[in-house]
């Protein structure tokens, strides 16, 4: 005789049990401390990490105006992002939002953060204008070593061996002190320009130059020889723009509504 085993079936609902869970619909807080570093045809964006436990990553947004329409340009799990599509001479406004593992996204950051990328160059060598006049100066508009007569600034060694950067009467220069890199100086100063139109050359110092045609530039000294100097430079091609660069903050306006 064939026997049959009966397997009891327990119906949880009949025993008063039920399964339920809460869906997380709370977005994380927007990032804070947004800042940028100007590059050549690029802008680096940095921010502070969000303290929410369930933050998965960040979305980076850009616009051509603070209250304009923002477009998503990338996502990352890090606290920095590089906009390689930025073009020299154009100003970009940036915002960052955070999102969690459940797909909830924060409002956009409220910091006023904008940047104007500009060209830069490295390891340029110029010589004492008395000894080698045709290779003694630099013209930012031409991105070129030139004769001191055509330069925005030029190099000089006096009879006592003192080395200086010189500018013409219609150009200003200021020694900004020692910097670790070219990027430590982010903005052109508003005052403090050298009344003599000269600045002593010191290794590791960065100098800001305000050209005769209303452009700002900076130069960092990398090497000093008996009759030459080697330097890195950056030049803002947007006329009158001091964006070498600095961020300014204004928390009175929200941009979140601009994209929704």
Instruction: Please state the structural category.
Output: mainly beta
Provide the helix percentage: under 10%
Q: How many distinct helices?
A: 0
| Main sheet properties | 5 strands, antiparallel
Distance between the termini: 74 Å
Count structural domains.
2
Q: How much beta, percentage-wise?
A: 35-45%
Coarse shape: elongated
Strand order of the largest sheet: 8-17-16-15-13
Mean pLDDT: 87
From the alpha carbons, calculate the radius of gyration and give it in angstroms.
Answer: 28 Å
Low-confidence stretches: 1-7, 9-14, 245-260
The tally of beta strands, per DSSP, is 17
Can you walk me through this structure?
The protein has strands at residues 35-39, 42-46, 55-63, 71-76, 80-83, 92-100, 113-115, 120-127, 137-139, 144-146, 153-157, 163-166, 172-178, 198-200, 205-210, 216-224, 228-235. It has a five-stranded antiparallel beta sheet, with no helix packed on it. A five-stranded antiparallel beta sheet has the order 10-9-11-12-14, with no helix packed on it. The protein has a four-stranded antiparallel beta sheet with strand order 4-3-6-7, with no helix packed on it. The termini are far apart. By secondary structure, it is mainly beta.
SSE map:
Layout: E1 35-39, E2 42-46, E3 55-63, E4 71-76, E5 80-83, E6 92-100, E7 113-115, E8 120-127, E9 137-139, E10 144-146, E11 153-157, E12 163-166, E13 172-178, E14 198-200, E15 205-210, E16 216-224, E17 228-235
Antiparallel strand pairs: 1-2, 2-5, 3-4, 3-6, 6-7, 8-17, 9-10, 9-11, 11-12, 12-14, 13-15, 15-16, 16-17
């Amino acid at each position: 005789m064939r026997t049959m085993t009966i397997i009891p079936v327990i119906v949880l609902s009949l025993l008063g049990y039920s399964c339920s869970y809460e869906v997380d619909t709370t977005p994380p807080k927007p990032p804070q401390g947004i800042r940028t570093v100007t590059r050549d045809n690029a802008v680096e964006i940095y921010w502070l990490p969000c303290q929410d436990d369930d933050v998965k990553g960040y979305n980076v947004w850009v616009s051509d105006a603070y209250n304009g329409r923002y477009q998503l340009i990338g996502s990352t799990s890090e606290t920095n992002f590089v906009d390689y599509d930025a073009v020299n001479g154009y100003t970009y406004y940036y915002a960052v939002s955070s999102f969690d593992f459940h797909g909830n996204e924060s409002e956009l950051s409220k910091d006023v953060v904008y940047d104007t990328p500009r060209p830069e160059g490295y390891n340029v060598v110029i010589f004492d204008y008395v000894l080698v006049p045709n290779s003694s100066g630099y013209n930012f508009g031409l991105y070129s070593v030139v004769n001191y007569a055509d330069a925005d600034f030029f190099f000089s060694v006096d009879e006592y061996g003192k080395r200086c950067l010189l500018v013409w009467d219609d150009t200003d220069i200021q020694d900004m002190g020692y910097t670790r890199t070219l990027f430590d100086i982010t903005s052109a100063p508003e005052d403090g320009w050298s009344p003599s139109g000269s600045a002593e050359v010191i290794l590791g110092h960065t100098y800001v130059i305000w050209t005769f045609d209303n452009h700002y530039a900076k130069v960092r000294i990398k090497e000093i020889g008996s009759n030459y100097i080697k330097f890195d430079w950056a030049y803002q091609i947007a006329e009158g723009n001091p964006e070498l660069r600095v961020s300014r903050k204004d928390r009175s306006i929200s941009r979140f509504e601009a994209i929704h």
